[in-house]
TrEMBL record, chains A, B, C, D:
Domain Semialdehyde dehydrogenase NAD-binding: 5-147
Family from the record: Belongs to the NAGSA dehydrogenase family. Type 1 subfamily.
Protein name, per record: N-acetyl-gamma-glutamyl-phosphate reductase
HAMAP family: ArgC_type1
Organism: Haloferula sargassicola
Length: 347, 347, 347, 347
């Protein structure tokens, strides 16, 4: 089988690095381009000694020039760029005929006004919003297969949405009572020279941040609202904890009147029983980041507290895997008609 | 000034170790006894090489025999023992005339029935429950000064109660909407040979546990109920994260009808403005475990989310400090008529 | 191609877990048996939730009974057992016609007297020592291909031997001056309920241990002696550091009289230029555990200090990968006539 | 007793922060000035929320202007500045009548030529070198008491010198055979926005660096040479490991001909028996960073390997404590005629 040619635009951050790792080993992909403004001319192996020796790692970084990317023969491009920048280069690549999987927030919000409210600048390509597919493969596989432009969800949204969506669709919980607390590894903050991300600042530290209105709320509430069929507004409190990779999210919500608690487990089963990358742990079993790090799995456990009437959902994923690069490749596999698990089977 | 003679009963766990550390350096205390069933005859310095060279560290462990403890001249005893065991030895020490600061759960619950519900055995000394003072120095200083028996609060309860109590007393939040998520360092699980506490099992791991009915809910809800003047039942989800020491707690609750959000900050100021060990961070500023580790401080920040109507409280403490040994010594200082910060000024 | 049937005997420790991980994903292997005295009847996925959902993870643990293992059709057995125990079951499996890759120390020492000196008990199967091949694939590929019994080297020895062997064979350094300092992740100490391995004991800790005569010196000196053609005795100081996986070793030795320092790099190139799993970093470039964790690579850098006349060798490997399970599978691939990198390409 | 007025010049790095911590709590010191180019006008508590509430933490940072520093009444100045910068401001403060404790390398090397060789620039104040005292309190207490200018030793040198000096003075080991391997926590690299110091780059990582000619070799070899009475050149390999604070050093050297190995322990005892901050662990007992972190202790263990004839020295200290700020305050106490342990008794 001929390999699908793919490019990574913005390959020098942690998400880019995860895409490189996955695509170098992907059995049906040829990585034809990796871009970086700072690393031009150096090879993947030089910038990431971890990849030295792996076939393909001798590829040299190029500048993020759409024409040059297209000239490598790539038919797919993964964008691991800051928001705002992604939309511009994404449009150029689409115009050159590539299919685009954007890992930034740029195409995740359907409403350009909401984007501007949360990201503090006008949307750079509002005409593309209608076309972009919010790329949760377990939720929109058919749309993804046909899409030209995927807005691949962020790490927090994935860990919050997958447990909640089936419950909202089936009206098992009261939307206004949803509170999500997430704990994220430091790689989620990106690879940038910032004092607050130094080892000695993060190690032996745990803290909330970004309250009360984290940017990811925009996409989270958009998708919850679609599922619920009514406007949903939630509390979301992200925390930084000293692990390299992984997010664990605990979400509480009040069970809707008259609902049997066991309906929660049943709804999760209906939604995800056939999904390879969603592992349902069952009732009373917490999810643990250490079981999903380095993988594309999301683990979901749940329980019910009869004392308070609340459901407790517990999910864990690798923020760079199912929360970023892994999920993007999952969408890519669907788009390219490949085995859905190709390149994603590491444990 | 003559030093107050004190004993530590159960000095070989992490809480016991923290009490040893604090009391060896306490300017007004002479540590006359430290007990351990396993370490009898070895000195503090031998069991904890960290303390070698510190005056007093040549003290040898003895068996936890009440008569032997009293014979050392101790007038105060700190109990860092498992629940169930503490009550029995505590009673014996009280009968011998010592004042007792118990760090277990045994005397924290006023209602022996609630104790049995949460701890799965009948209370070993129900007649002492009426006398025991729940030892939050910022809440009950006068009772503590006069007490013969202190039930020193646990780490989770302290981090949840101190931010919430003033808000409930002033009826600023809706009690039924309280959800507390805590993240604890591994020392909170104790010093025991258990596979799940191994470095390789905890490092790069984060997970919830003990849901939905953690034992500490019994004391948390008891104290919240007293403050609110009505029965309070909450959701509490503890998590284990890979730090040695520290708890960060994020608590959400709906602002009561018609309350100005700024009343939250004002209530916290009124409650704690003169309290050395409670540091109010103000609005929008999260608490971070790294700023309180090794100290007896609790940091409290808060914010309000107009989108959801919820208040977000963020607190951080050292689970072995303000959450255990430090707070116990804070009560001891009050009981013994000492400077409230004696032995507790480390940063 | 038909899959090779293989068993893992002793699959509940960290090394066993790494073998399970690798063999479940190995494209040419069918894992037919995994044994554990404690976990009998539970599946791999139940004991290791990380593997849930992976094809093959529904295999249930059985007792380590040689007949039962052979009855699963396995033609290869990996032994991840304590020394002493491995020899006994290894012999039984050989007698039943299986080929055996032993990851314990039992067959690594050619001289039963040396074994007894270092392991404090008589060798349980001295008659098998002559047959066993010390399984360094980069050193003895031909012997490994034909072997019935492999003694797969330990993690410290691998990290020390691979850089040193070529230099001793070419007489570039003075054997009596060799000093090796290794820093190991905590998984190297095994998965056992031991207070000294608790998170809170290992985190924020670094220390030497096992000096001056660590057991692994027996195999290290045996192999160095063979390469040098003269008796070699070295200093080896292992240290425990707070990482899950990884060993970094720094070895110093005096350059032999009249040798051009550049001969060091040239000798390493000659020895390992064609070896996929040995990555030569070149002169002046240190090895870092983070680049090899989760892989079967060993990275080797070196430098020369003209002030002291010493060569400094710096190597890094994953102690569970190239230092244990990965290397064992590397030998297995040779024995079974498979692609040498099959199942070992993760980065 | 009147408090001694002291200033910290360069108080915004990790060493400066440790000096602030120690001096705020020092019973005989009033901190009158703390300087920082970037933080002018902010208080200590604002820049370091950890210190909020501690008396003295309301002090505001000023610019590092010698006149302004002197104007606060300070009679002592601690310099925690980069090399090159320290010499200039140090001279100005001396001229203004202050006594200076410099924690940079600027005054540690007696020979300006050696300084230039290792630090790549001409020495900025060579005329002061003769006067500066290399501030190892256990070695030069009398000189320190009388000194106007202390060159306080670095973290690696302290951990290497204290075990070795007595052995060289008594000619118990062969100087040319000394090899020192050190493992340092990340705080030793300073508080600067550098990608290589990010949490995700340092966590789960261990590596050598700075070989073969680390700058600290200049002061290490100078002091070893003085002790030995002959030129000493050694190998020193520093490593970075994922802990916040702490250095563990393992040093090997060949026992001199005819020396009884037990003479090693005896020499250490003679040198340090009365020294509060040097804890001799005895034969065969390794030092562990976790026992000294946060303290001013250095722990030293040793053993002898009859197989190789080598002595193995194992030392541990807090790189910010005995390796930097703690040791500087130890010298200060001597200079000011205070209790040698004042402000240094934390465990």
């Amino acid at each position: 089988m001929e390999r699908v040619k793919a490019a990574i635009v913005g390959a020098s951050g942690y998400t880019g690095q995860e895409l490189v790792r996955r695509l170098l080993l992907h059995p049906h992909v040829e990585l034809t381009a990796a871009t970086s403004r700072q690393e031009e001319g150096r090879t993947l192996a030089e910038v990431y000694p971890r990849f030295a020796g792996i076939p393909g790692a001798e590829l040299a970084f190029i500048q993020p020039d759409p024409q040059a990317i297209a000239a490598t023969g790539a038919t797919f491009a993964f964008l691991a760029l800051p928001h705002g920048v992604a939309a511009e280069i994404g449009r150029a690549l689409l115009d050159l005929g590539l299919r685009v999987i954007d890992l930034s927030a740029d195409f995740r919000i359907h409403d350009a006004g909401v984007y501007e409210e949360f990201y503090d600048h006008a949307h750079p390509a509002p005409d593309l919003l209608a076309e972009a597919v919010y790329g949760l493969p377990e939720v929109r596989a058919d749309d993804i297969k046909a899409a030209r432009l995927i807005a691949s969800p962020g790490c927090y949204p994935t860990s919050i949405l997958l447990p909640l969506l089936p419950l909202l669709r089936e009206k098992l919980i009261v939307p206004a009572t949803i509170v999500a607390n997430s704990m994220s590894g430091v790689s989620g903050a990106g690879r940038k020279a910032d004092l607050s991300l130094l080892f000695c600042e993060c190690n032996e530290s745990a803290r909330a941040y970004g309250v009360p209105k984290h940017r990811h709320l925009s996409e989270i509430e958009q998708e919850l609202t679609i599922a619920a069929g009514e406007k949903v507004v939630i509390s979301f409190i992200p925390h930084l904890i000293p692990v390299n990779a992984g997010i664990v999210t605990t979400t509480t919500a009040t069970l809707a009147d008259g609902v049997d608690p066991e309906a929660i487990g049943a709804a999760l089963e209906r939604a995800y029983a056939g999904e390879f990358f969603v592992r349902l742990l069952g009732k009373g079993r917490p999810a643990d980041t250490k079981r999903v790090s380095g993988t594309n799995f999301i683990d979901i456990g749940w329980t019910h507290d009869p004392r308070t009437g609340r459901v407790i959902l517990m999910s864990a994923e690798d923020n760079l895997g199912k929360g970023a690069g892994g999920q993007a490749i999952q969408s890519f596999n669907l788009m390219a008609g490949l085995d859905p698990t190709a390149g994603l089977q590491s444990v």
